[in-house]
Design brief:
Layout lengths: L5 H72 L2 H24 L4 H27 L4 H14 L1 H119 L5 H31 L5 E4 H13 L8 E5 L6 E4 L1 H19 L6 E9 L3 E8 L27 H11 L4 E4 L7 E7 L15
Parallel strand pairs: 2-4
Antiparallel strand pairs: 1-3, 4-5, 5-7, 6-7
The structure holds adenosine-5'-diphosphate (ADP).
């Protein structure tokens, strides 16, 4: 089971939560904008309403003026058109008062004001009506009524009432506009804050998602590295065991041969003697010789088994193998960085090899190079490849270390040859076994400019991978 690190677990739950919160914020913003629009529409309708009221008031003013003008016209001229116009003005006055009352119907104070206005207007129109009825024929009586109207100051009262209504309505309009402005500003501010919050949370969510993806990628890479390492360790253990048993078998063969010789010599001596238990001793020595031969056969079988070097060859990319091995080896060299250069010939990239085993060879050589360069001021590693003869690819691993120790240069590919206090001296010997099992060869040299160069060959898998370059034309 894979255990997810706590950090990435937290991130993986935070990102969707933040995305949800962002979505919610955007919904709230949309709601706030909608409400604001509704309020705006309301306040527009209030402005419209006030305008309607003001229009109705000025209509009443106009109708009062028309009624009075026509009354005087009729009184002075006696022309009927004046009395007709007066009649129309009076009707208009009544209907405009009705519509004004309907308009302000939701405001009790206004309704009371309009009712008071209607009272004054009715009284005034009643006077006007009487004057029209009397006409120019009864001018004196009519003038008395006019005089009475002047005394009653009815026209003035109507005017005052209309002006008061206008003022109140305008004040209401101003108040409503101010209130609307304040609310709009507050709504705009809240919306802007929410918007900033939403954008910020969207940005954080995006960042967290990216971080989560990067962590997942890193985990994937780590897991790949781990499984690669595990596989290499397994192969390394097997190779080490194989190499050690092979070396032991080689070492034991000689003493076993000597034992066999001694036993056979002893048997001959016993047979030539006159010892009473000669027969028994000979039989025991025969058995000893048989067991020695058996031990030899067991060791031979072990050597054969190890030497068979079974490999699982497939077509692989040399660059991929080298990069994987570098990634593994770099884990141990983090404290002392090494300048690494890959100079691999793309035309010779395909090789027919046991990938894990060749990775092991790369790993051994790279690790040795890193260890050799540990205390060097200049640490450079170059891995190069090029096509070689006989369908092979030559690989070179060069370092800027101190070069090969003269004492070991001759036998460093033999098992247990090491100059390191905690070394096993098995790595190069395993590498040689692997390379030979692939039909290649491995060698080391110390170039004049310093450092060590290991070079080995592997079978190429490319179609016509080795194409000798044409000789340059003279
Ligand atoms: P180990 O690393 O355990 O000693 P190896 O078989 O890998 O075993 O190496 C054998 C010896 O070869 C090392 O002890 C070292 O002396 C020598 N050697 C290997 N690689 C290098 C190198 N790049 N530079 C110098 N010496 C090296």
């Amino acid at each position: 089971m894979t255990v997810m690190p706590r950090k990435s677990l937290a991130t993986s739950t935070q990102a969707p939560l933040l995305l949800g919160a962002t979505l919610l914020l955007f919904i709230v913003i949309a709601g706030a904008l909608f409400l604001n629009l509704m309020r705006l529409r309301d306040s527009f309708s209030w402005v419209q309403h006030t305008n309607d009221v003001l229009l109705a008031i000025s209509g009443i003013q106009r109708a009062v003026l028309e009624a009075e003008t026509n009354e005087r016209g009729y009184l002075l001229t006696g022309i009927d058109s004046y009395s007709d116009a007066y009649g129309r003005a009076r009707e208009a006055l009544a209907s405009r008062l009705d519509s004004l009352r309907a308009l302000v119907g939701d405001n009790r104070e206004h309704v009371a004001r309009v009712d008071e206005l209607r009272l004054f207007v009715d009284m005034r129109t009643a006077q006007l009506g009487r004057v029209i009825e009397l006409g120019p024929e009864r001018m004196h009586e009519a003038l008395d009524i006019l005089e009475q109207a002047r005394t009653d100051r009815l026209t003035e009262r109507v005017e005052t009432s209309l002006t008061a209504l206008t003022r109140v309505e305008q004040a209401l309009l101003t108040e409503r506009m101010h209130k609307h402005d304040r609310e709009s500003l507050a709504a705009a501010l809240i919306t802007a804050c929410l918007l900033i919050l939403a954008v910020a949370s969207a940005a954080i969510a995006a960042f967290l998602l990216e971080h989560q993806r990067a962590t997942a990628r890193q985990q994937e890479a780590d897991q790949r590295l781990q499984s690669l390492q595990a596989e290499l360790m397994r192969v390394a253990r097997l190779s080490t065991m194989g190499e050690m048993s092979s070396a032991l078998a080689h070492e034991l063969n000689q003493p076993l041969g000597a034992i066999t010789n001694y036993v056979q010599g002893s048997r001959r001596l016993v047979e030539a003697s006159s010892h009473p238990d000669k027969a028994k001793i000979s039989a025991a020595l025969d058995k000893a010789a048989q067991q020695t031969l058996r031990a030899g056969a067991v060791i031979q079988r072990l050597r054969d088994f190890v030497g068979r070097g079974e490999t699982d060859k497939t077509v692989e990319s040399l660059r991929a193998i080298a990069e994987d091995a570098l990634a593994l080896a770099s884990v141990v060299t983090r404290d002392r960085p090494v300048d690494i250069a890959l100079a691999l010939d793309p035309a010779s990239d395909r090789v027919l090899v046991d990938k894990v085993q060749v990775q092991q060879v790369f790993l051994n050589l790279i690790r040795n190079a890193f260890e050799a360069m540990r205390d060097e001021p200049e640490r450079r590693l170059r891995i190069g490849s090029r096509a070689a003869a006989a369908g092979m690819v030559e690989v070179v691993v060069a370092d800027t270390g101190p070069g090969l120790d003269a004492q070991i240069a001759e036998r460093m590919f033999q098992p247990f040859a090491t100059t390191k206090p905690d070394g096993m001296g098995i790595g190069l010997s395993i590498s040689q076994t692997i390379i030979q099992a692939h039909g290649g060869s491995i060698s080391a040299s110390t170039p004049a400019e310093g450092g060590t160069v290991f070079s080995f060959t592997l079978p190429s898998a490319g179609v016509g991978a080795y194409e000798p370059r044409p000789a340059p034309a003279d």
